[in-house]
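If you are new to this repository, start here. Below is one unmodified record pulled from the training split, so you can see the exact layout before writing a loader.
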Amino acid sequence: MKPSRPPGTATPLPQPRDPLRYLTGYQPAVLEQVRQLLASEQLGKVLHKKYPDTHDIRSDKALFDYVQGLKAEYLRSAEPLNKICFDSRLHVVHHALGTHTSVSRVQGSRLKSKREIRIATLFKSVPPEFLRMIVVHELAHLKEKAHDKAFYQLCTYMEPDYHQLEFDLRLYLTQIEFLSQPPGPVG
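And here is the target side for that same chain:
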């Protein structure tokens, strides 16, 4: 039997997403500044002025080479990566911008491990600083599993501006979600 609603009541509308959901945990004063920038349509202009370029890494092969280069520079002793790719399902399905996985399986009397990094397709058309930030984040998980002090120290070792880039990326994502467009020049 299907439950019934009282007569005259409508189906509730879905709740709108919080436009500042990427900025939870930041100080109220910072959130207010972001609200003002969004309301005055200045956030996109500010971000575009700071990050005017986009990178040219569009294929999985180019991403693989880029990630392997950073890994070779900073994490030579880390386990090898078997797969590195862009993934169009990441942002929607996992509510994540990148993932790192390790799959272990028994092969004879040995345990074989495969590691992979997947980066959200969204990162195909972002400033190069944001791609580097997310790659550094996922590479740091090769050594540190939890988001703790050691993890963030490793991130800042690989990218000294990591924390600023993470914040600016959160602003970028807020801009995309709020106005349904990436930051860019205004015509």
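Two things worth knowing about this chain: DSSP finds seven helices and three strands in the chain. The chain has a mean pLDDT of 83.
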